[in-house]
Amino acid sequence: MIVQSAYIDFLKYSLEGNLPLPKSAKEIDWRLMMLWAKKQAIVGIIYGGILNVGKSLDIPFNILMEWIGYTHQIEIRNRQINKKIGEVCNQYRRDGFRNCILKGQGVALYYPNPLLRTPGDIDIWLEGGRDKVMEYVTEKYGNLLERYHHVELEMENDIEVEIHFTPSYMHSPRSNKRLQKWFDSNKEQFENLVTLSDCETKVAVPTKEFNTVYLLEHIYRHLFSEGIGLRQVIDYYYLLRSSTKLEIRKEKLEMTLKSLGLWKFSGALMWVLHEQFGLKKDYLIAEPNAREGKFLWNEIMIGGNFGQYDMRLRAHQNEGFLRRNVRMAVRNMRFVSHYPEEALSEPIFRISHYLWRKKNGLK
Does 76 fall in a domain? Predict the structure, then answer.
């Protein structure tokens, strides 16, 4: 995979900013590079590397213009979302709910240029628990699509908002119980205020200490439910790079990750960050695990952003409940030898959650 290796070399150059231009950059077909960057939702990150190089790269003019235009749209979208975040956070706080922006725009603050990160939805955690939040949401918006950990609504400019009762979950009942307890004991996130560009008020985002666990768990969960891409991994890269000394003792962090069943996966992710992105060992939170890291890297390269490009066992049009669950069960069989408890718990969680929604008359 010489071409893909050249892409990764240039991505590493784009992330670090102070590395010499890799020789493999001469091998890059920039049209294909653009398609690959879109697949992984990292167009803006690569464009940052292009800016560092200047005119010495032989990029066709029309492709360069396309890259500039696409990156400009990313910046506009980030500004729209940041503005909307200020509005919704103020609204929910006025209505009596402390709140915190998860992932997304808060994580972008770790980046050298936050506006170059491809944005997604607005994920906002409201304090109060499912019953209290759902009573409020139903009264304010009517019936919405309710999931285990959030409800979904759409605002102007097609900005989607996910209102969380809890930041995340795990499929294993034992791990999930411990995770929810950990969230309950870390509610200082609601008062960790920061400033976002184009946002007229300060908003709360998780601390680095919280994100070190939460973002890792989020990547892990999506590995089973959809798939993950480079954008999520780069988020974690910049989180670890953002401080020479994490605001958490490594002994405490190791104990937390082990209790949540995330320790082996943390070794896999550290291998990816160290071997593929060149993150120095001083920043790593665990010893790199080569076997698990290579497996994870293969999943990332195949699946793209949230697994949208994974052609293995793709969903069929108008797929029914039974067929989807069989497909997902077959898909997750490849994880059993790596993470057996979570992989074997996933289909049980998925079916029980479906039955819970049917029982409660939910969509």
Answer: no
Query: E-strand spans in the chain?
Result: 99-102, 122-126, 145-146, 150-155, 159-164, 193-194, 203-204
The pLDDT of 29-42, averaged and rounded, is 92
Domain co-membership, 200 together with 92: yes
Beta strands (DSSP E) in 139-240 are 145-146, 150-155, 159-164, 193-194, 203-204
Alpha carbons within 13 A on the beta-carbon side of 103: 24
Chain segment 175-206, per-residue pLDDT in tens: 999 999 999 999 999 999 999 988 878 999 99
Q: Kindly give, in sequence order, each residue whose CB lies less than 8 Å from that of residue 165, ignoring residues fewer than 6 positions away.
A: 126, 128, 129, 130, 133, 134, 149, 150
Matching residue, tokens 């400009």: 72
Looking at the structure, tell me whether residues 185 and 213 fall in a common domain: no
Same domain, 110 and 199: yes
- DSSP, collapsed to helix, strand or coil, labels residue 5 as helix
Question: Does residue 304 sit in the same domain as residue 319?
Answer: no
Quote the domain boundaries for residue 248: 209-311
308-352 pLDDT, tens digit per residue, is: 656 565 655 666 666 776 777 777 788 888 999 998 888 888 888
- Same domain, residue pair 184 and 87: yes
Same domain, 252 and 316: no
Q: Answer yes or no: are the C-beta atoms of 106 and 205 closer than 8 Å.
A: yes
Domain boundary among the residues 206, 230, 245 is at 206
pLDDT one-digit tens code per residue, 131-159: 999 999 989 888 777 888 889 887 767 88
User: Are residues 305 and 316 both part of a single domain?
Assistant: no
